[in-house]
Amino acid sequence: MRLELAAFPVRDVRFGATTRWRDGVLEIDPDEVLEPVRRDPLVERAELAVARPGESIRIVTIQDIIEPRVKATGRGATYPGIVGRPVETVGEGRTNRLSGFTLMTCTPPQDVKRYGLLSSFRPGTAYGDFLDMSGPGAISPWASTVNLCLLVEPVRHLDPDPANRVVQQATLAVQDQLARATLAETPAEVEVLDLTPRPGLPGFVYIHSIVSPEPIYLNPDSTLSTAVYGITRLTQPWLLHPTEVLDGAVCGSFFSGDFYRWFTWPLTNSIVLHMCRRHGIDFNFLGCIMVRTMWEEQRQKELMANRAALMATTLGAAGAIVTPTLRGQRMLDTMAVVRACEEAGVKTVLITEEEDDEDGSAPPLLVTAPDGVGLVSTGDGSAPGPFPPVQRVIGAGPIGDHWHAEQPAPHGRYGTSHLNDVWGFSRLSCVDY
Amino acid sequence: MEKPVRVVHYLNQFFGGIGGEERAQTPLEVREGPVGPGRALQQALGTKGTVVATLICGDDYVAEREEVAGPSMRDALQRYRPDLVIAGPAFDSGRYGLGCALACRVARSLGIPAVTGMYPENAAVITHRRELLAVPTGLNTTDMRSIVERMTVLGLKVVRGEPLGPALEEGYIPHGVRKLVTKDRVGYERAVEMLLARVAGRPFVSEILVQQYERVTPAPPVADLSRATIGIVVSTGIVPRGNPDHLPGARALTAGRYSIDRLPRLDVGDWESAHGGFNTKVLNTENPDYALPLATLRALEAEGAIGGIYPWIYSTVGNQTAVGPARKIGQLAAAEFRDAGVAVALQVSG
Amino acid sequence: MQVQHPCGDPKLPAEADRDLSLRIVRTALLALQTAVTGPTLFEPPSTTAAERVHAS
Q1: Cβ-proximal residues to B302 (8 Å cutoff; 6+ apart), any chain
Q2: Residues in chain B closer than 8 A to C34 (CB atoms)
Q3: Rounded to an integer, what distance in angstroms lies between the CA atom of residue A225 and that of residue A221?
């Protein structure tokens, strides 16, 4: 498949009387853009706010981060399948993107006690659920993008799943309008991603693990995690063409019980894009294999791993880059995939966060990697700090004053993580001393 | 010019010129000035330092009689007051490695910096990793000169009080401590480069090398369970309903201690699971016994398969629990069980 | 056996469920009486000894 990615870079955002992109400036009519969101009777409040690189801003209650994209030509719609969008196969033709820009949706955290779950996460722990736009805490890739924050508050009586659906609907309504503003304009740059194999190069696949919310929320249709064409249930691996991933075929954030992990932007903007760009130069990019994690029996984990390895060998892969989603028991599933690939003769490199080493008294990985596997560390979830006070805090719902104050250095202890970087989009890592 | 650094060198009986395996029982001897590889050491030091003395000890003696060899080394070091101790290199010799490690540890206890050199899988590295500053060596003793030079560079740096950078950059065997750094390139670029190297059969360095998992010696089997009292420990988060101790759903630091005295089973009206890492609906609406099989244990107690059930359980949540707190919880339960004469512990993991 | 109910299976009829729980716990007791040198996996038998006798 062949996809043209047409870039419309955004240097700044202005609120105005119309919504259009011109010469790097995205003008937004907030009333127009929010109209379909506010029309939803399940939305209590919806607002927009802008956070630019270098501003003294901290963004909290982030639900997901998404780069607005729209199909200019070719089948289907971007971010397909979720909240009733078409499931037509994407990945061909031309996709317009607002580059250097994100739509950051913020919403109050869901209350999983409504599902009878005792999510009594230890109070007082600093979680990595904030982003700084300036200062020493500005270490995320989104500190250098212009971010439009969509603050959505669903009506209060909703259960977590329907509430999350309302938020996803709002996000896509806004993203569609913003991305469509490029349709009549000329892109600054067009990247042609033609993944026809070139003879003589080794074949690589990318295998990504996605946690399924099905066994957590006992709901096969739960929206509280990353979807493949809208599907989140605990299924056997999916084979996707890399350009489908760039069109958002795998999207949605994971709700871990007390905060969201933002997974949409990293899927469209980091490793898959990089591998597409290196295709035909260093290797042939043969495909993306999406494996579900959160299996509850050993034999199920093994079956999933075997299916993924068979897909890789059937495609003729010599190598695979594997990424997990979350640590804990999900890591067992991911490592089973690595092991199955190695046994099938597919050489793997695993990109992963590592466990806090507790000053040298704990091993860096929960489970041993097979001999010879290449490991790339994206750090232990911690970040250098403290993060100084900020002038402005952007977030949805009641936001505590404490967010204006200095934040302690986020630590990676007990499975917490500041960036949740399993894709390697940051430069953080750990080394031996 | 700076005052030359005073160096004491440690060698085994073989490199110290006393003899081979037949002299491995030789107690600690002290010689003035450099001996054997010490001459290469003196050359590497040049005008920056002087090998003032060499300590030589038999491999068997030092490995088997640490309690005598250690104090002898201490006396010698106190007599010569060196600024730096260099030990070995020991290559892959386990007993020589232990001797070098002992010399380094004694030096450290006196506040004297110490550097050794050995094969990274030498038993002494595995045992004393945290305390050793060791240059990695191969198995081949013909590399002596370059290894001694690397030990010297590292030693002089430590004597000057300069902080050491990452193990790979400075050329020492990792202590097993990981530190956060910012790399030049993002992770996925490094991953693609690494995979290209792997597939092409080119050398590459994995970013996570040391994987130390603690080895626990298994307890001996129980001879007669019908006379044994069983203690119960769970990480499935079983707590009295209402979670009186506020056991968290993840990242627990402590465990609850609850009485199951004379209870035939865990009743769903009285017990629940506080675990936040899996769906607890079955446990919390049907039967918490699935996570602490008390009814089954009572049946086995009644038929005499086990002697009895200890009336207190320990319960924590095994969800993203750090190793340190988990170890403390285990030690707490083990101490109580041991004092109460509980012979065996049954754990249900969650 | 699943993460959600490690010592039994609520989908089984009550008697079979009790039997499964017994097999699991008996396997744990067997492990306690067995000398091991490192991590060792003990699999609960798929049927009880009594059932196996009936079947043969």
Answers
A1: none
A2: 221
A3: 10
Residue in chain C nearest B280 by alpha carbon: C4
A297:C1 CB<8 A: yes
Of C5, C25, C38, the CB nearest to B297: C25
The string of pLDDT tens digits covering residues A301-354 is 999 999 999 999 999 999 999 999 887 788 999 999 999 999 999 999 999 999
Please tell me the distance from the alpha carbon of residue A93 to that of residue B260, in angstroms, as a whole number: 66
- Domain annotation covers residue B214: no
Band of residue B176 on the pLDDT scale cut at 50, 70, 90: confident
Give the mean pLDDT of A414-431. Answer: 88
Give B236's pLDDT tier (boundaries 50, 70, 90). very high
B contacts of C25 (beta carbons < 8 Å): 293, 296-297, 300, 346
pLDDT at A125: 42
Q: Which chain B residues touch C if contact means CB-CB below 8 Å? A: 218, 220-223, 225, 236, 278-283, 286-287, 289-293, 295-297, 299-300, 305-306, 344, 346, 348-350
Kindly identify which residue of chain A lies nearest to residue B197, measuring between CA atoms: A374
Dihedrals phi, psi of A153, to nearest 5 degrees = -120, 110
Per-residue pLDDT, averaged over B67-93, amounts to 97
Q: Is the dihedral of CA A357, A363, A368, A373 positive or negative?
A: positive
d(CA B122, nearest CA chain C) in Å:
21
Question: What is the β-pairing status of strands B49-57 and B114-118?
Answer: unpaired
Which chain C residues are within 8 Å of A296, Cβ to Cβ? 2-4
**pLDDT number for residue B135:** 97
Q: Tens digits of per-residue pLDDT, B287-298?
A: 999 999 999 999
Question: Domain of C22?
Answer: 14-55
Residues whose CB is less than 8 angstroms from the CB of residue A94 and which lie 6 or more positions away in sequence, other chains included: A3, A4, A5, A6, A71, A72, A73, A74, A190
Mean pLDDT for the stretch of residues A271-293: 98
CATH number for position B151:
3.40.50.2300
The answer to whether residue A316 is domain-embedded is: yes
Mean pLDDT of A254-266: 88
Q: What is the mean pLDDT of residues A342-369?
A: 90
Residue B274 is nearest to which of A120, A372, A379, comparing CB atoms? A120
Q: Does A215 touch chain C (CB under 8 A)?
A: yes
Residue A30's domain comprises: 2-415
List the single residue in C25, C35, C38 with the smallest CB-CB distance to B220: C35
Q: Supply the pLDDT for residue A127.
A: 47
User: What percentage of chain B exceeds 90 in pLDDT?
Assistant: 82
Q: What would the two tokens of residue A408 be? A: 């302690």
In the predicted model, is pLDDT for residue C53 greater than 60? no
Structural domains of chain B, count: 2
Question: Does a structural domain hold residue C40?
Answer: yes
Q: Give the count of domains, chain A.
A: 1
Give the sign of the dihedral formed by CA B192, CA A329, CA B129, CA B18. negative
- DSSP letters along B270-292, please? TEEE---SS--HIIIII-GGGGS
Q: Between chains, do B190 and A376 touch, taking CB under 8 Å as contact?
A: yes
Q: Which positions 99-138 of B are in contact with A (Cβ < 8 Å)?
A: 130
Q: What is the per-residue pLDDT for B1? A: 56
Asked if residue B218 is part of any domain, the answer here is: no
